[in-house]
Write a structure and sequence with these properties.
There is one protein chain. The protein has helices spanning 10-13, 38-49, 82-89, 91-115, 133-148, 179-188, 304-319, 361-376, 384-387, 398-413; strands at 6-7, 27-34, 54-57, 73-74, 122-130, 154-156, 167-176, 196-198, 203-207, 212-216, 221-229, 245-257, 266-269, 275-281, 287-297, 325-334, 340-343, 351-355, 430-436, 439-445, 451-455, 466-468, 473-475, 482-484, 489-491. By secondary structure, it is an alpha+beta fold. It has three domains: 10-69 and 181-241 and 337-395, FAD/NAD(P)-binding domain (3-Layer(bba) Sandwich); 122-174 and 244-334, D-Amino Acid Oxidase, subunit A, domain 2 (D-Amino Acid Oxidase, Chain A, domain 2), CATH 3.30.9.10; 413-491, Rieske [2Fe-2S] iron-sulphur domain (Rieske Iron-sulfur Protein, 3-layer Sandwich). Helix 4 (91-115) crosses helix 8. The longest helix is centred in the N-terminal third of the chain and has 25 residues, at 91-115. The two termini are 30 Å apart. It comes from Phormidium tenue NIES-30. GO terms for molecular function: 2 iron, 2 sulfur cluster binding; metal ion binding; monooxygenase activity; oxidoreductase activity, acting on paired donors, with incorporation or reduction of molecular oxygen. Residues 418-504 form the Rieske domain.
Length: 504
C-alpha cells in the first residue's frame, strides 16, 4: 500500500541539510565528540564556550539521526515515571531527577536566547492523560508522586482534545521546539580557532590512551585528551550498554490543522495504544499537528505499515486532518529508567558516554551536555552520581530478564527462518530471509523486479536481521542496528554494513 504524505521527518524536510566536510587528515583537539545529535551538539557547545577546542564527528549529517526524528517535546513530565522512580530509586533520587529535567529546560532556553536562535521554541503545558479507569488510577499515582517531589503538577479533569478523557496530570511551563533548526544553529558556532565539525565520517572505535585516539573508517585519526561517545546507542560495546537497555521504534504522522481547532498544549496518553500529540508552527504560517505512538521493540514487527495506518486513522477520525508527513524514530530504554551519562567504564579515564534516554531524549540530551562538560572540565556536577554510566544496573528485573531472554531467543531461533526459501520466492516489494548455499541471506526485490541480497547476519553481535516493510529496511531485533535494503548502515550500534551476498 502507498501511504499518503511524505515519508520524511518534518524537522529535516523543513530545513536545508548541513554541508560540513569529511575528515581527510589527522587533527588534534582537546575533546572529540562522536555523534552530532542534540547531546553531542550541546556538549560540544558548552565545552567550546569554556575554552576547549572540540571536534564534532558525525557519520551522516548534523541532527539527522534520532534527534531529527523526535516529537521534540522538552519536559520533566514524561508520561508515567515518578511513581516508578520513587519505588525503584527512592525519594531523593527521584526528586533530583525531576529537578534536573526542569533545569535542563531552563538551560536550553538560555542557549536559544543567548545565541538568538530561531527554532520555534515555545513554552507549553504538558499533559499525561488517561481515557479509562485503569489509566486514571495510574494518573493519580503519578500526580501524588510528582507532587511529593516538589514538581508543580496539578490534576485536571479534561483537556482540549477531541477525546473522552478520564483525567490528566498537567505540568506548566514546559517546552517544544524545532530540533533541527536548533542543532544546525549551534553547530555553525563551533568551527574555527582550533575546533571542527566533520560529517560523513564514521568512527570505528576509540582508544582510551593519553591522548585518546578516535579511529575513523575514512582513515585519518582525531587525537584528543577526552572523547565523548554520544551516538545513542554507544558504538563501543565496552560497558555493555546494549545489554542494559533495549531498542524501541515508534511512529509519527502529521497533517496541517486550522489554528482555531488545534490543541494548545503537549499531550501523551497512558495504556495500550497511547498517543503523543503536539503542534508545530510551519514557516508558511500554518500549524502541523503531530501524532505519535505505536511503539514496539526493534525488529519484532514486519507489518509496520499497519502502525502508520492506525495513526493516520486517528488523525482523520479525531481531528479531520489528512496526513502530510510520516516518519519513525528509535531510542534505547534503560532498565532502571535513568540515562547512562559519564565515564564509559571504571577503567576508562578519558572516554565518556551518553545513552539510554528512554524516549525523552530532548531533555536528557541537555542534561548530558551539562554533566559531561563539567566532568571534562574537572568540576563535579550535582547530577553526576544519579546518572553515572558505571552504576550497578539491575539485570534481574522483570523487564531486563524478559528483554535479554528475548535477545537469546532471536539469536538462536531466527537462524531457522527461511531454511527452505530461495530468492525465487521473493516477490516485488517484499523483503525475506532465504537460504543460499547454506548461508542466511536477506533478500529484497524492488518494484522494478531487481533483487538486492546481503548477509542476514548483523555484524554487531551476529543476530539475524528482520525485514521492516514500512521503512524498507533490515532491522536487528537484538540490539537495534538497522540497515538499508542494500545493507548500508541506518542506525548504530553497528559500525559495519551488512556484507554483500551474490545469489547467482
Amino acid at each position: 500500500m502507498t501511504r499518503p504524505g511524505r515519508h520524511v521527518s518534518y524537522w529535516i524536510d523543513s530545513t536545508l541539510p548541513s554541508t560540513y566536510p569529511a575528515l581527510n587528515q589527522d587533527v588534534t583537539v582537546d575533546v572529540a565528540i562522536v555523534g552530532a545529535g542534540l547531546a553531542g551538539v550541546i556538549t560540544a557547545k558548552l565545552l567550546k564556550q569554556a575554552g576547549k577546542t572540540v571536534a564534532l564527528i558525525e557519520a551522516d549529517r548534523i541532527g539527522q539521526g534520532t534527534s531529527g526524528h523526535t516529537t521534540a517535546k522538552v519536559s520533566a513530565l514524561q508520561q508515567l515515571i515518578y511513581a516508578d522512580l520513587v519505588a525503584q530509586h527512592g525519594t531523593e533520587k527521584a526528586r533530583l531527577y525531576g529537578a534536573s529535567n526542569q533545569a535542563a529546560i531552563a538551560r536550553l532556553a538560555e542557549l536559544i536566547a543567548a545565541e538568538n536562535i530561531d527554532c520555534d521554541f515555545e513554552r507549553k503545558a504538558n499533559y499525561t492523560f488517561a481515557t479509562d479507569q485503569a489509566g486514571l488510577e495510574q494518573i493519580k499515582d503519578e500526580l501524588e508522586a510528582a507532587q511529593s517531589l516538589g514538581l508543580p503538577v496539578t490534576f485536571v479533569e479534561s483537556v482540549d482534545l477531541p477525546l473522552s478523557v478520564t483525567g490528566a496530570v498537567m505540568l506548566p511551563d514546559q517546552a517544544q521546539f524545532h530540533p533541527h533548526k536548533f542543532m544546525l544553529a549551534i553547530a555553525a558556532t563551533l568551527p574555527g580557532n582550533g575546533s571542527y565539525v566533520f560529517e560523513q565520517t564514521r568512527v570505528n572505535t576509540v582508544k582510551d590512551e593519553d591522548p585518546c585516539r578516535v579511529i575513523t573508517q575514512n582513515g585519518p585519526t582525531v587525537i584528543a585528551q577526552d572523547v565523548v561517545v554520544a551516538t545513542n546507542p554507544s558504538i563501543l560495546d565496552i560497558g555493555l550498554f546494549f545489554a542494559k537497555s533495549y531498542p524501541q521504534r515508534s511512529y509519527l504522522v502529521g497533517g496541517h490543522i486550522d489554528a482555531n481547532r488545534a490543541p494548545q498544549g503537549m499531550y501523551i496518553g497512558v495504556g495500550e495504544g497511547y498517543r503523543s500529540i503536539r503542534t508545530a508552527p510551519t514557516d508558511d504560517g500554518r500549524l502541523l499537528l503531530l501524532v505519535g505512538g505505536e511503539g514496539h521493540k526493534v525488529g519484532q514487527d514486519n507489518a509496520t505499515d499497519e502502525r502508520y495506518q492506525r495513526l493516520e486513522d486517528f488523525l482523520r477520525h479525531h481531528f479531520g486532518v489528512e496526513p502530510a508527513y510520516r516518519w519513525s524514530s528509535q531510542d534505547y530504554k534503560s532498565f532502571d529508567q535513568l540515562p547512562y551519562i559519564g565515564k564509559l567504564t571504571l577503567a576508562h579515564q578519558h572516554t565518556y558516554v551518553a545513552t539510554g534516554f528512554s524516549l525523552w531524549g530532548m531533555t536528557k540530551s541537555v542534561i548530558a551536555g551539562m554533566v559531561l562538560s563539567d566532568a571534562i572540565l574537572g568540576q563535579k556536577h550535582p547530577w553526576a552520581d544519579l546518572y553515572d554510566a558505571t552504576r550497578p544496573t539491575p539485570l534481574v528485573t522483570k523487564t531486563s530478564v524478559q528483554q535479554n531472554l528475548d535477545v537469546g531467543s532471536h539469536w538462536v531461533g531466527d537462524r531457522f527462518k527461511g531454511l527452505f526459501d530461495s530468492t525465487d520466492s521473493v516477490t516485488s516489494g517484499e523483503g525475506k530471509l532465504v537460504t543460499h548455499k547454506g548461508a542466511k541471506v536477506a533478500a529484497y526485490r524492488d518494484d522494478n523486479g531487481q533483487l538486492h541480497t546481503v548477509s542476514a547476519v548483523c555484524p554487531h553481535l551476529g543476530c539475524i536481521v528482520a525485514w521492516n516493510q514500512a521503512e524498507k529496511s533490515w532491522d536487528c531485533p537484538c540490539h537495534g542496528s538497522r540497515f538499508s535494503c542494500d545493507g548500508q548502515i541506518l542506525h548504530s550500534p553497528t559500525v559495519k554494513p551488512l556484507a554483500q551476498k551474490a545469489c547467482n
